[in-house]
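[Structure tokenization] protein backbone as discrete codes
[Encoding] learned vocabulary of local backbone shapes
[Protein] chain in single-letter code, fold in tokens
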Amino acid sequence: MRYWKAKSITPGSKVCISVVTYNQTNCLSSLIHALRAQTFKDFKAYILHDGPWSNEASTHYLNAVGSDHRFVKLNSPTREAKFGHHLRQIGFDMGAGDKCNWLCTMNADCWYAPVYLEWMLGSAHENKSNFIYCNMVHSHKLWKPMKSDLKRGAIDAGNWIAHTSLVGDTKWNSNSFSSDWEYVNKLKNKPDFKPSKVAGYIFTHN
């Protein structure tokens, strides 16, 4: 049963979700369940393990995904370590092949309200925007609300989506701690950048 008015979404919208993980078994299972509970269903989630999957991580993944064909299990040949940020580009590239026209990235320790994708795409439709971000709660332990903004330290890799027409050939090549902001800043500096913000706290960062 819905307790909110359904959002209008531009027909043909399909979201590529690029997730980077490394042996985060319980967290990854929670994220997958959160994605399967989304009210917007047309997405493809590429789960990229940094290096070969361990037996435990693989078992947790398979139990959480079941037969859901929207999830794709991937890994890099060897452990990249550091933050694995640049692995997100693999998901983006595969999303293009699956005809996704929206891109977003997540971490295995993130959690999303069931309306996350619906409200983000609803904002895009309502505001004719090509980059949408939302407020967040920082940590399921501290439950600290954070008002996101388009500046360093105020936006996370996991609380925005961007249209492929905006992204174009922009690549996520950096593996630095701040590469999430560096990538967003590249998009922000494009002349056709049209942002909108969802005021709801529909994303929890670790």
Residues 44 and 98 are 8 Å apart (CA to CA). The helical segments are 25-36, 55-65, 88-97, 116-127, 164-167, 179-188.
